[in-house]
């Protein structure tokens, strides 16, 4: 059941948070080989479930997230619980307080089931964590769940958690959503607080939800979005009702279909699914408009921005605990030593030009429709992928090709959602990415929810979730 | 440009406990070449005469017209 379906039953006393948490724990233990948790919090989850159950029985129902088991990626802080960010170097790092997003979700009654596994220091897209175990995809345990929020995506797809909170700095919520056949929403930068996130990027990091449905995503984001006076990256704009336009028809909506960049690096099976989804949007009443993005042929150079920021945010960790860090991270840190100040500033200039290009496009269309990633989830052992005859290495380069279609959502700050749109090679899920105007998450939720009802992925569950 | 293993070892020494075997360093050198290629392409990008919309253009002589 989805959160949307569970909520009225919990409110009416027909379903118990204790039973929900027990079922989630049983599922987590049955699927422990997926390595989705670094720190399970089953005992505290049971205690919280009892507290919520008693409160609800006394009339203290808090809303649709009350009594719902959720997961939290392990680069987000929870008081009294270690926050490793997926690296052995932080295995003894115990947080003193909850991240602000966690505070708000707990205030809404959500129950934290555990801290979720991820790609080490959120610095990659495979979640092949060398310290806490390789995270497995519930659709095919020999494949990656995507990353860096791999444990979060896998938990939702495996029906262990009803929602998980991940982080997205280059695609790290949308890519696992694509790989695991779930919904991943990266909201507008500034829509929600970053406080309590172990940052890699000062202006590209987002705390974002993964859920099984679009309506669930709207409920989760609703609970923690909004200005945080202690986080200067947040913007004091009103938070709309993200669920208000769910399922509305698409007449009058203009969908931009990219003629360049987004479909340049994509496999045939993914492209077929995404283009079919775009045609389906037209069938739902939307008008399709071909759009072009200037300067995106240089977009790969923007990875310099994130690499530069990581060199600063990770430097102390690497200096003090270098022996506990993987070869991948060590190589990445070495590379950043060659970035000059003028390189960073030139990348910022390019970023500005690309942002202006997106703004021009979004003046004329309501949303841009594109693939989430070039490929379906690859094998966990893959070192190289071939896309349209070109070979791309996945080792020691932060597997950046996997972020080809997503990272501009972070560099522009625009909201972007991944919604399942069918299946590709090996029966693996494929996601449709919708990119919208600043703070126009309601439009993304409207289009994604209406499309979801006719998607080939509707009601599909991962094989391991239902075994 | 390829970074020599000796240079990489010296750079790693700056990071305290970071260490890599000779094999790992050889591997890293290949990956670093890709990164250096990215930086070189960034430096070569023909953006000198292209300005974002918010930047004032000055006429010849440096005066705003």
Strand content of chain A: 15-25%
If interface size is counted as residues with C-beta under 8 Å from the partner's C-beta, which chains form the largest one? A-B, 36 and 29 residues
- Order of strands across the main sheet of chain A: 1-3-2-6-8-7-14-15-11-9-10
- What order do the helices and strands of chain A follow? HHEHEHEEEHEHEEHEHEHHHHEEEHEEHH
Shape verdict of chain A: globular
Number of strands of chain B: 0
* Integer count of domains of chain A: 1
Radius of gyration of chain B: 20 Å
Mean pLDDT, all residues of chain A = 94
Q: How confident is the prediction overall: mean pLDDT of chain B?
A: 75
Task: Supply the CATH architecture of chain A.
Answer: Alpha-Beta Complex
Strand percent estimate of chain B: under 5%
**In the CATH hierarchy, what is the class of chain A?**
Alpha Beta
The helix count of chain B comes to 2
| Record field, number of beta strands of chain A | 15
Helix/strand-derived category of chain A reads alpha/beta
CATH H-tier superfamily of chain A: Amidase signature (AS) domain
Summarize the structure.
The complex is a heterodimer of chains A (467) and B (65). Chain A has helices spanning 3-11, 17-30, 42-57, 100-107, 150-157, 174-180, 214-224, 268-283, 303-313, 315-321, 327-336, 341-364, 407-412, 441-452, 463-466; strands spanning 37-40, 69-73, 111-116, 128-129, 133-134, 163-168, 183-186, 206-211, 254-258, 287-291, 367-371, 384-387, 390-393, 416-423, 429-436. Chain A has 467 residues and is an alpha/beta fold.
Task: Give keywords.
heterodimer; A: 467 residues; alpha/beta; Amidase signature (AS) enzymes; 11-stranded mixed β-sheet; two-stranded antiparallel ribbon; 15 helices; 35% helix; globular; B: 65 residues; mainly alpha; 0% strand; elongated; disordered C terminus
